[in-house]
């Protein structure tokens, strides 16, 4: 029987049904006792809080996963993104104030006190340092303010950010040969008619190139080999071409019949510049004289303008026909009023002497008839913009290169300049700011003249490298072009209906 009693005792021990009195404390008991101890010591004043948790304690939640962490008790820590010294002091002060009991007699802090506390603690008013201003327009930055908080202030978009830039090809659309071209800065050997015909003078010949069909026609050839063509100018309608020659004459040609209608001899030296104003042809010569000729009458010479002392190499009538601008080798720019019928006055409206070099480049603004642009030679290199109503120089720009020709491009309201020494290129400028838009390089020698196509989309340049290059840099956006055509058609239809 004693044997069976011993076996029963062994089985009862192996079943572990009885409590183990001398065993170590369970893990859940250790955890509960440690949390209770830390809570009591944290809330008891005057006690030491040097209670360390078990190193093997596993956090119940992964750090960074739970973004909405609310302090479980008053006086808990908070998230402070930038812990500099001032912010740590502020945080410590706020924590201390939260742990103190509320005073019933304590009055709420006024806005003035809050502003004073903010200025003393943070160095700035926290109401003025908002990242986003939700009501009304964004605040304007105060003068001298250092934007350390990346505050979003109001700003106006620049016009450049609103406009899309167009593509301007750096290579010409077409290159034409111009053999035997006379390399003379003071001559005007290229002009483009309203009927899309390009006239070019090569030594003593005048050639016509039809830009629509691509045909080339020899219009005229001077009798003597030592004579040469000095200037060309189309009428507004594009049917007649004036030709100035080295033998002091001006010829008028009908390009349709290829016949010379008349030859006018009034100058004593070569005729280097020409410009039409309806039936009046103005011509400038090496003597410095400018002659007005009425091509309708036999006695064509009307009046002589004597404002220049040297060769008149630039001559342009304004689009409205009110003023004639002339530039000479004497560095002068003169503006002459239109000669009235029966008037013999030859007094200039303005004489400008600001240029320090020969003035050949002249251009009137098509959309502002009172604006004149002039360009100086090698000794000057400046583009100057003049107001002929007031006689003042609006702006001036140093191009650092000889200026041989100027053309306004109305499609984009730009100014185009041709240059000789030292760049030998073409530059497109935005008007009126005169900021550089593009450089057109390709000529191997100085550019002598520029002309614009009738649709204002292409500029032709002729240079001493005996080439003519066509730059298609001002094509209008097809959508805008169609809209403009539709508007023109609707306007014409309204006019026709009113006439009927």
3D architecture notes:
The protein is an alpha+beta fold. The protein has a domain at 174-486: Methylamine Dehydrogenase, Chain H. The chain has helices at residues 2-15, 27-43, 85-99, 111-122, 159-162, 478-499, and strands at residues 174-177, 190-192, 197-202, 205-210, 216-221, 229-234, 240-245, 249-254, 259-265, 271-277, 280-285, 290-294, 301-305, 312-317, 323-328, 333-337, 350-352, 359-364, 371-376, 382-387, 392-398, 403-409, 414-419, 426-430, 435-440, 447-452, 459-463, 467-471. It has a 4-stranded antiparallel β-sheet with strand order 1-28-27-26, with no helix packed on it. Strands 2-3-4-5 form a 4-stranded antiparallel β-sheet, with no helix packed on it. A hairpin with a 4-residue loop joins β24 (426-430) and β25 (435-440). The longest helix has 22 residues, at 478-499. WD repeats lie at residues 222-263, 305-336, 377-396, 440-472. Keywords: Repeat, WD repeat. Residues 176-471 form the CDC20/Fizzy WD40 domain.
**Counted beta strands:** 28
Strand order of the largest sheet: 1-28-27-26
Number of helical segments with 4 or more residues: 6
Structural class: alpha+beta
Range of helix content: 10-25%
The CATH homologous superfamily name of the domain at 174-486 equals YVTN repeat-like/Quinoprotein amine dehydrogenase
């Amino acid at each position: 029987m004693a044997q069976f009693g011993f076996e029963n005792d062994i089985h009862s021990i192996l079943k572990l049904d009885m409590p183990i009195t001398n065993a170590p404390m369970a893990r859940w008991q250790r955890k509960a006792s440690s949390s209770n101890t830390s809570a009591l010591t944290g809330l008891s004043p005057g006690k030491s809080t040097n209670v360390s948790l078990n190193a093997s304690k596993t956090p119940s939640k992964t750090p960074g996963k739970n973004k909405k962490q609310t302090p479980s008790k008053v006086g808990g820590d908070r998230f402070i993104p930038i812990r500099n010294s001032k912010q740590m002091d502020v945080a410590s002060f706020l924590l201390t104030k939260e742990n103190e009991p509320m005073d019933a007699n304590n009055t709420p802090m006024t806005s003035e006190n809050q502003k004073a506390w903010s200025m003393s603690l943070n160095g700035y008013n926290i109401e003025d340092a908002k990242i986003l201003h939700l009501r009304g327009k964004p605040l304007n930055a105060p003068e001298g303010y250092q934007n350390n908080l990346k505050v979003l202030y109001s700003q106006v978009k620049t016009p450049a950010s609103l406009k899309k830039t167009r593509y301007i090809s750096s290579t010409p659309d077409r290159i034409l040969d111009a053999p035997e071209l006379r390399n003379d800065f003071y001559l005007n050997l290229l002009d483009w008619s309203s009927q899309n015909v390009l006239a070019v003078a090569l030594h003593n010949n005048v050639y016509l190139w039809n830009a629509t069909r691509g045909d080339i026609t020899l219009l005229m050839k001077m009798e003597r080999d030592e004579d040469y063509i000095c200037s060309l100018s189309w009428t507004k309608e594009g049917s007649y071409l004036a030709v100035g020659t080295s033998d002091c004459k001006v010829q008028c040609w009908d390009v349709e019949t290829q016949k010379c209608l008349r030859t006018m001899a009034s100058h004593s030296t070569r005729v280097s510049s020409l410009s039409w104003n309806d039936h009046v042809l103005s011509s400038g010569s090496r003597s410095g004289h400018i002659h007005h000729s009425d091509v309708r009458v036999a006695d064509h010479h009307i009046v002589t303008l004597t404002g220049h002392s040297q060769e008149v190499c630039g001559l342009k009538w304004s689009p409205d026909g009110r003023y004639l601008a002339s530039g000479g080798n004497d560095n002068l720019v003169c503006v002459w009023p239109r000669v009235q019928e029966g008037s013999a006055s030859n007094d200039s409206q303005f004489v400008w002497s600001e240029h320090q070099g020969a003035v050949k480049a002249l251009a009137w603004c098509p959309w502002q008839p009172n604006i004149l642009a002039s360009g100086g030679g090698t000794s000057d290199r400046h583009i100057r913009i003049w107001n002929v109503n007031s006689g003042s120089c609006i702006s001036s720009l140093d191009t650092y290169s000889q200026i041989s020709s100027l053309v306004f491009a109305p499609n984009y309201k730009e100014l185009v300049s041709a240059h000789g020494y030292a760049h030998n290129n073409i530059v497109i400028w935005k008007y009126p700011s005169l900021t550089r838009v593009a450089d057109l390089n390709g000529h191997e020698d100085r550019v002598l003249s520029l002309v614009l196509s009738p649709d204002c989309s292409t500029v032709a340049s002729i240079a001493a490298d005996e080439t003519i290059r066509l730059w298609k840099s001002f094509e209008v956006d097809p959508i805008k072009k169609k809209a403009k055509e539709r508007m023109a058609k609707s306007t014409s239809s309204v006019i026709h209906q009113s006439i009927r």
